[in-house]
Write a structure and sequence with these properties.
mainly alpha, about 75% helix, about 0% strand, elongated
């Protein structure tokens, strides 16, 4: 995670709340918010690694592989309550996947926003 994603100061609370379901976070965290934050960050790191391959897979015509990976990533996003990531993936799944339709930068922005929201939650900013 970059330093930029640790600092949620430049993102307003409403935007952060749109990235992660605060109520779900509290419920899932129970007495182990640190453990949940670690798992959420592991999901984001893994999703970043997987999504970095999508442009090349799409160029190679491996649309079904990308579709399968998108579906798995959407499931993880649903578990953690990453609403914006889920919505972006749902839009990608509905459209025709091709190299021109996948915006890697937009996907990365949503992952970074989720990271910022997690940092804000862990820091007590979003309660």
């Amino acid at each position: 995670m970059s330093e930029m994603t640790h600092d949620a100061g430049d993102v307003d609370d409403e935007t952060l709340r749109s990235a992660v379901d605060v109520v779900r976070f509290v419920r899932l965290a129970g007495n182990d918010a640190e453990g949940l934050v670690r798992m959420m960050n592991e999901y984001l790191d893994e999703t970043r690694t997987i999504s970095a391959m999508w442009p090349n897979l799409l160029q190679a015509g491996e649309v079904s592989e990308v579709s399968e990976q998108l579906h798995m990533c959407k499931g993880g996003a649903a578990i953690f309550g990453f609403a914006r990531v889920m919505a972006l993936i749902a839009d990608l799944e509905k459209g025709s996947l091709d190299p021109a339709s996948y915006d890697a930068q937009a996907f990365e922005r949503e992952l970074a926003l989720a990271e910022r929201a997690i940092a804000a939650l862990a820091g007590g900013r979003l309660t």
